[in-house]
């Protein structure tokens, strides 16, 4: 994604005061065209993952319309949120890592759940990514949604 795809207002905006950052003073609400497909290098999946950059106060009805109608994501029966553990979590030291991955994929698949993570390739989120990648036949049937700050 290149800077040319972003609003020129966002590119030219300058921090103009010395207090700590806060959304009210340090952001400008503007419509965005920052959405689409991500083509990861060396990805083994033929379906390109979708992304959207949105305001933290986005209208949930509009967001739901995008996810369910435009992107045709299946209506979930369950939302599974897997967050935290970025600095202390080391799945490689876990003796039951495989069982956790198997269980997460099975729970998500059997309940028709959406998986939510921080969307980074570190800590617990990495475990979720590894779990879904481990079961490639289920990759397209288990929506994984990364939620992270932008900027």
Model description:
There is one protein chain. By secondary structure, the protein is α/β, with parallel strands linked by helices. It contains five helices and five strands. It has helices at 8-12, 23-26, 60-70, 97-111, 123-134; strands spanning 35-37, 50-52, 78-81, 113-117, 144-146. The strands form two sheets. A three-stranded parallel β-sheet has the order 3-4-5, covered by helices on one side. A two-stranded antiparallel ribbon has the order 1-2. Helix 4 packs across helix 5 (123-134). The chain is globular and about 50 Å long.
Would you kindly provide a brief summary of this structure?
The protein is α/β, with parallel strands linked by helices and 151 residues long. The protein has 5 helices and 5 strands.
């Amino acid at each position: 994604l290149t800077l040319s795809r972003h609003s020129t207002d966002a590119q030219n905006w300058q921090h103009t005061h010395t207090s700590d950052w806060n959304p009210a003073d340090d952001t400008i609400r503007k419509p965005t065209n920052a959405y689409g497909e991500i083509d990861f290098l060396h990805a083994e999946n033929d379906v390109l993952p979708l992304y959207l950059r949105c305001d933290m106060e986005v209208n949930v009805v509009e967001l739901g319309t995008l996810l369910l109608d435009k992107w045709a994501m299946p209506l979930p029966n369950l939302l599974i949120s897997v967050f935290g553990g970025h600095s202390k979590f080391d799945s490689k030291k876990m003796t039951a890592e495989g069982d956790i991955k198997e269980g997460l994929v099975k729970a998500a698949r059997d309940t028709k759940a959406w998986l939510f993570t921080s969307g980074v390739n570190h800590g617990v989120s990495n475990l979720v990514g590894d779990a879904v990648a481990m079961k490639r036949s289920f990759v397209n049937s288990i929506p994984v949604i990364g939620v992270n700050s932008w900027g």
